[in-house]
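Chapter review: from sequence to fold.
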Amino acid sequence: PGTSGIDITVYVNGSPTTITCTLAAAGTSASDTSHATTVAAGDLVSIHVKGNGGISAGATEISASLLFTNG
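The token string follows.
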């Protein structure tokens, strides 16, 4: 992504949580160790990944989803 980075946000049931981090353009890892959220069985957990500028071609957003179940 050029000189920008990639913003990552965790969503639960379609709503953003406080769990976020930014991967710098030249970075190899990012984390948020300050925030937590509650997830119950059957909740949909999504990871939203978005370039925060400087992307001139190709995909600018990627999302992945996980469904947690109990049992």
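Two observations follow directly from the output. The first strand starts at residue 5 and ends at 12. The chain is about 0% helix and 45% strand.
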